[in-house]
Amino acid sequence: MDLNAVEPGCGSGAWTIQAATQFPAAQILAVDRSPLPNRFLPANISFQIADISKEVDFGDEKFDIVHTRFVLFHIPNAHDVLRRIAQQLVRPGGLLLIEDIDLLSYVGTGPASRHYISMVKQMYDERGIDMEIGRKIPETVRALRDFPNVQFQKISLPFGGNGPDDSLNGLGLAMKQSFVRGGDVVAEVLAPKGFTHEMAVKYREELEKDNESLVDVYFCWASRVG
Ligand SMILES: C[S@@+](CC[C@H](N)C(=O)[O-])C[C@H]1O[C@@H](n2cnc3c(N)ncnc32)[C@H](O)[C@@H]1O
C-alpha cells in the first residue's frame, strides 16, 4: 500500500512539495489555516484549510507520517495540540516528525534586545503560547504512552553565519533575517503595551549587528507502537 502523510501548518508547502516530489507514490495532505500560495503542486498533494488548534480530525484517516515544522511556537496551548496531532493522526507504526524553535534560546546582545525579549515573553505568556516549545517537544511526546522511543536533535543556528558548520551558516543568516522581519511586525503589536518606536529602532539596530547569537531548533521524531 502507498504511504500517506499529513503536514499540519504547511505554510508555503515547501516540505509537502519536497516530500511529494521525492515520493511520487505517496499521498500527502497539506493543511493550513491560510490558503497555499498559487504555485505548481505535484498531483499527489491535496490541501485542506483547517485551524489545527481546534480540529485535527480528518475523518477517520490516520497517517504513516505526520510532519509539522515551525508551527507550534505560534499556537496557544500547543502541548495539547501536539498531543492531539500525535494521538489522532499517527497510525500505529507511523512516524511523528516535529521541528520547532526554542525562541528563548535567543538572548540578544544588548539592552534593547533583552527588553524586547522580556516584552515578547510577557505577551506570549498572556496568550498561552510557549516560546520554548521546541525544547519541550521531546518530553511532551515521551509522556504519550504510544510513543516510547522519542529521538531528538538540537541544532544551534548562528546569527552571524560564522559557525564551524557551513551547512548551518546559511540557515543562521536566514533565521536572523526572519527575526528582523518578524521584529517589525511584533513591535507594532507591542506598541499599545509601551514598546515605543525608538525602542523598536534600537532593537533592530542591535539585531542587525548581532553576529553572536545562537538560536536553537529541535528536530524530534518518534514512531507510534504498532
Ligand atoms: C512559520 S510558518 C511555517 C510553515 C511551514 N511549516 C514551513 O516550515 O515552511 C507557520 C505556519 O503555521 C500556520 N499556522 C499557524 N497557526 C495555525 C493554526 N492554528 N492552524 C493551522 N495552521 C496554522 C501559519 O498559517 C503558517 O503557514
Automatic annotation (TrEMBL):
GO biological process, one term: methylation
This protein's record includes keyword Transferase: yes
Keyword Methyltransferase attributed: yes
Record key words, sorted: Methyltransferase, Transferase
Pfam families, alphabetized: Methyltransf_23
UniProt GO molecular function: methyltransferase activity
Matches recorded under InterPro entries: SAM-dependent_MTases_sf (IPR029063)
Recorded superkingdom: Eukaryota
UniProt cross-references to PANTHER family, sorted A to Z: METHYLTRANSFERASE, RHODANESE DOMAIN-CONTAINING PROTEIN
Protein name as it appears in the record: S-adenosyl-L-methionine-dependent methyltransferase
